[in-house]
Design goal:
The chain contains 14 helices and 14 strands. It has 407 residues and is an alpha/beta fold. The chain has a five-stranded mixed sheet with strand order 5-4-3-6-9, sandwiched between helices. A five-stranded mixed sheet has the order 12-11-10-13-14, with helices on both faces.
Length: 407
Amino acid sequence: MNNESILESRKYYQRNKILSVIRFQRNVSRYDIKKSTSYSMTTVLSIIEDLLGEGLIYEEECDEVRVGRKPVWLRLNPEGGYFVGLEFNSRAMHCVILDFTGKIIYSRESGISDQHSCAGAILDLMKENIRSALEFLGEKKEKVLGLGLGIPGYSDKQRGVAISYTHLKGWENVPVKQIIEDEFGYPCYMDNNVNGMIYAYKYLIYNGKCEDMLFISIRTGARVMPIINNMPVSSVGGFPGELGHIKVGGGSRICSCGKYGCLNTEVSDYAIVSKIRDGIRVRRFQKILEMVNGNIDAITIEHFVEAVKKRDGDSLDLLNEIGGFIGNTIAMLVNIFAPRKIVIYGELARIGDPFLNILRERVKENSIKENYTGLEITASTMGRDLGAIGAAALVMQEEFNFVEETI
């Protein structure tokens, strides 16, 4: 690397560091940035002028009553740029736009039915959603800084290729990144849909500093993404976080991977619906059958959640079984990672304490006291568009390379 490249790289790092300070701290002046970064005032002033010129930040006078000269705060400009995120699974697709501060200014949900069960139809639906988001921005679409994609199943984020997803026909080695970039002309970034959710939590909820936590998504499959010492834990190759393929005691159903006894076969949305349909055949789950007017094919995970909230006996029994499988698995993770917080995401999380208390009890029974004491197990408060928000936050990360700091 020549001297010019080194200087450019250093300036890029300094620029992103200063943007991170402005993003994650409430009231920041030029002097505050100098203190936070240890950069020279000359460097700080030069970069601030560049950011003001690019329209990424603006100045705001302090309105507090103070003795002496009042500071001038530096703020992110909401209209400085936009991040578009799209995520889907076999049931729904979500698309959002975040402004430069990370605020959601647009959100759209599209149901996925049997007519979308092939790769071509999904790609068309992706394009339709992104096109609608850009139309919402109008002339401001010129300020879109990138498109983020949350892809289900197995994918290679470096090459931008979707490798496989059990629930879609023909979804094999699809060059999604290239297809979307060619269609719209913006930089495109992709990752597994659950992996992306962790960026939404870290940067938009915890302001860049997150205590040790496990984010666990249970939807069409079960995945875990840890943040340890403020750093997302992943790997360069392979497919980390595949919680759903851990073998569980008592599991006997065949999994999409071709093996028996995987957690996914007991606790995924599809597994739960399958168990309910099997139970109806022996006259169980009559409350849920009434909900769908006798149409067993219409049963969804939402019906199960509603039945649990209505204290239906069969549904509560199934919940206890599901919670046992998940709780025992989480206990193993607690002993490995020793997190301080666990966040559960998915339709089951909407049940709240009746579900979470089962997990808490199992984790307490099966993890060591030192790791369990003080552990918080909560349900995500984010909506069904979290994956799309995470995909947009992935663009924020890739475009501005937030400086990671351990806690």
